[in-house]
Amino acid sequence: MDNKPRIVFMGTPAFAVASLSALLQAKMNVVGVVTAPDKPAGRGMQLQKSAVKKFALAHDLPILQPEKLKSPEFFEALKQWQPDLQVVVAFRMLPEQIWSFPPMGTLNVHGSLLPQYRGAAPINWAIINGEKETGVTTFQLQHAIDTGAILLQDLIPIAPNNTAGEIHDTMMEVGAQLLVKTLHGLFDNSIKAVPQEQVIGNLALQHAPKIFTKDCEIDWEKPCASIHNLIRGLAPFPGAITKIDGKIVKLFLTQMIEGMPKEAPGSFITDGKTFAKIACKDGYIGLSDIQWEGKKRMPIIDFLRGYRKPT
Fold first, then answer.
1. How far apart are the first and last CA of the chain?
2. Is there a smaller number of Cβ atoms within 10 Å at the N or the C end of the chain?
């Protein structure tokens, strides 16, 4: 294994674990792992390890958890691993000193078909915008975020009712396999990086900025298709937000119901037992999963058991 390129892996959440696991299964020479510091969580605010740290510990991989990526101490510790290449999956933005120093550079796994959907929330925005497909891209890091030369891509279809959570889980596995394929191609010189400028041409680029609370608020004056896409694009997290009887609720699973509403957009219609829908501009949104403020997420039938319409 020692004569193989030395790889440092950087990642934090469960999404990144699939890629790290795939590298080990492919007998890649992972010499160290960089992940986020332990953070307090839960009722007792006990320190919690990241998903990547838990996996690394279980596989006896050396770990670094820098508080500051620009600290000289972190850079010196990283250099001790003598990486030929760094792999980044769902990690923080790296300073140039970090991503540029390995001889083979640093590559990233991104959840879109770059150059489309550069940014922090590519899965969410692809679904919110009603895309029929998305994908995974491996690319070389450079200074501007998500703009480096493309190595390989793999396409993922988006079904009409797919949620962001479902696409995330699919992408986690597809991305892991694409990463291994990319590394094999780099090591045997069978793939060539393609600058994104050569791909963009006259494309109208879509962007994927971080999701904020205002992005989650439902405008019932919009068409049903747009609202349905927003809800599934924000499920299961952070959840699309609206109000029912003046109280904040989150919606997760919905269906579009045809028929021009007689009610005003945003009106909540229910039989009080098994069925609920909300009027929008050109139809209705049928509700399947809902979360009342301060309560747990539940099926609409369970929600309606405790629902009493204000008089």
1. 73
2. C
> What whole-number distance in Å separates Cα of residue 239 and Cα of residue 74?
36
Residue ranges of E strands in 93-224: 106-110, 133-140, 150-157
Mean pLDDT of 135-163: 96
58 Cβ partners below 8 Å, 6+ apart?
A: none
pTM: 0.94
Distance CA 151, CA 137 (A): 7
Q: Within 13 Å, how many C-alpha atoms sit on residue 100's CB side? A: 6
Q: What is the pLDDT of residue 309?
A: 81
Q: All domains of the chain, ordered by start, with CATH?
A: 6-200 (3.40.50.170), 213-305 (3.10.25.10)
Give me the mean pLDDT over the 283-294 stretch: 94
Measured CA to CA, the distance from residue 259 to residue 297 in angstroms comes to 28
Instruction: Read off the amino acid at residue 293.
Output: E
Those residues with Cβ within 8 angstroms of residue 262's Cβ, 6 or more apart along the chain or in another chain:
none
Give the span between the Cα atoms of 6 and 8, in whole angstroms: 7
Residue 76 near residue 90, CB atoms below 8 Å? no
SS3 165: helix
Tell me: the pLDDT tens digits for 177-196? 999 999 999 999 999 999 99
142 alpha-carbon distance from chain centroid: 21
Helices and strands, counts by H and E, the chain: 10, 15
Residue with token string 């770990």: 63
Is the separation of the CB atoms in 98 and 117 below 8 Å?
no
Place of tokens 């797919």: 162
Residues 35, 36, 42, 46, CA torsion sign: positive
